[in-house]
Amino acid sequence: MEYFKKLLDLLKIEREEDKQSYIKLIETTSVSQRRAAGLSWYPIAIRGSEMSRGDYLTVEVERTTHTDLSHQLRFGVPAVLFSNHDPKKDRVEGTVTHQSGNRLKITLKTDELPDWSRDGKLGIDLLFDDNSYDEMQSALKTASQSAESGELGRLIRVLTGLDEPTFNDKLVTQPIPSLNESQQLAVKKILAANEIAVVHGPPGTGKTTTLVQAVKALIVQDHQKILVVAPSNTAVDLLSEKLSEAGLNVLRVGNPARVSERLNDLTLDSKMAGHARMKEIKNLKKQANEYKNMAHKYKRQFGKSEREQRKALFDEAHRIMKEVTNSEQYIIDDVVSRAQVITATPVGANHYTVRNVKYRTVVIDEAGQALEPACWIPILKGQKVVLAGDHFQLSPTIKSDEAARNGLANTLLEKNAVLYPEGVVLLEEQYRMHESIMRFSSQIFYEDRLRAHESVKSRLLFPADLPVTFIDTAGCGFDEQLDGTSSTNPEEAAFLFRHFSQLASDLEKQGYTDKNFPTVAIISPYKQQIAVLADQLKHAPDLQPYVSNISVNTIDSFQGQERDIVYISMTRSNPEGTIGFLSDIRRMNVAMTRARKKLVVIGDSATLSVLPFYSSFVSYAEELDGYKSAWEFAEI
């Protein structure tokens, strides 16, 4: 199919761009720089090892310093154990099979640790993730080949716009008291759909709650296992937890992004550990390791009989490990068969433990952030797809501008929402924001259909407070500065903290203390501006009592989160009216919808208003009496 040929071509472009970026980064940086970028753990200590499937060796390591640094070493990613004595020569590749806190397990493509591993200066480097691209490429090829055959072929043709979707319009559903009207409609649409249903969930509208109830209803209706995926481990964790709390038997493939006993209990490792046959496997592994250790005691210089004895010991270890593999597979199959819902990332859905499982329904959450080629991995395992998300928030991260420009940034959610409006239900009632914070976003993105629930619509920090403020820095001389490829505006940042300090003083007068101070997000689209803001926060004495309630980060990192107060530092201020990626109004939709009670946007209207979106927002703030000039705050 031409449809998939184009996607394959775009994926190839993206893969090459991604790989070249990785190579450039790895080849031009030191281990300390890679560590700071989240690509390395160094130094590490080996805490244990055991034989694994296929006679590979699984090694548990712990990072012993720089434990506060964030990193990208996650379940399923390729990585390499290296010695910094000679990192190009002394290295063994493998796959991260578990990561929690400052420990991880890596299954190495060897059956014994190399001699250099005993000499210290060890580390783990993230490798380029060829596997994910291979899985996506394979899925696209399979989809292209399957488009003309059976139920899967029909699903593929519907999702690519060649066939029309069908719905069981006569379906009678039981009301779910905990859901509002639009949420009920979404569940009904999901149950009635034969091929595709789309749940469009704007910020704060209870999309996760709706999906959980829909999954429960699908299990009652179809009596079949359901696959639920999301592009980030954080989103998978949230759904896994909520589905489990709803009483469903959930199997989380991969290991959670955050440490939680409840989440850990849902993982395959945890469920296997509690299985009746696990004791037998542990004993077998112990035997295999003993035989292997005995074999390793032989020196390199030995005669024929010693060589034969060594071989016999290795053979016995391998025989036992085959028995272990068979027993583990039995347990895996048993655990998988009992699960009602399997949760994973799209690539994780093809993990060897669940690779061959088929489903009636596949649910893809946060589909607005999911790369389409990745979505086809789980889709090929089902007969019906539910796409949930919001294509008016952040789109997938794409490295290649060319690939993005030519269609890779266009998600399956967006395509199907446009193709089949009859299959889309918009969740219309939101439970997060004051109605004035909500309304601008509703007007611009959601056809003015959103409404605020009674519990939040008039919620303020204190009586007569302004829920929305735009502070205009035009004419103040707060000019942006270029910092590498990013922009900064130190004077705007300094003004923000002066304003925030005054707000903190006002809140104190209203009875707020460090015990009940509102949660605050200070966000900006620019990483370097975030660095400036974070540094200036340290030097804002009036705010130090409340610093534990204050988060400073990029807009992208805040998708899915909310705070009582949100400050947005727009940063750009120049006579040319250049606004860079501020022109991506979906990013600003995310930024403006994080606030529950108060939104403060600080920026230069003369620069921003080159885009109608921003001039409309300035006008909107004026209507609410929320437009202020920075000159009005000259005294603070």
UniProtKB/TrEMBL annotation:
Pfam families in alphabetical order: AAA_11, AAA_12
Residue stretches making up the AAA+ ATPase domain: 193-419
Sorted UniProt keywords: ATP-binding, Helicase, Hydrolase, Nucleotide-binding
InterPro entries reported in the protein's UniProt record: AAA+_ATPase, Coronavir_polyprotein_1ab, DNA2/NAM7-like_C, DNA2/NAM7_AAA_11, P-loop_NTPase, SF1_C_Upf1
One Gene Ontology cellular component annotation held by this UniProt entry: chromosome
Single GO molecular function: 5'-3' DNA helicase activity
Family: Belongs to the DNA2/NAM7 helicase family.
Full protein name: IGHMBP2 family helicase
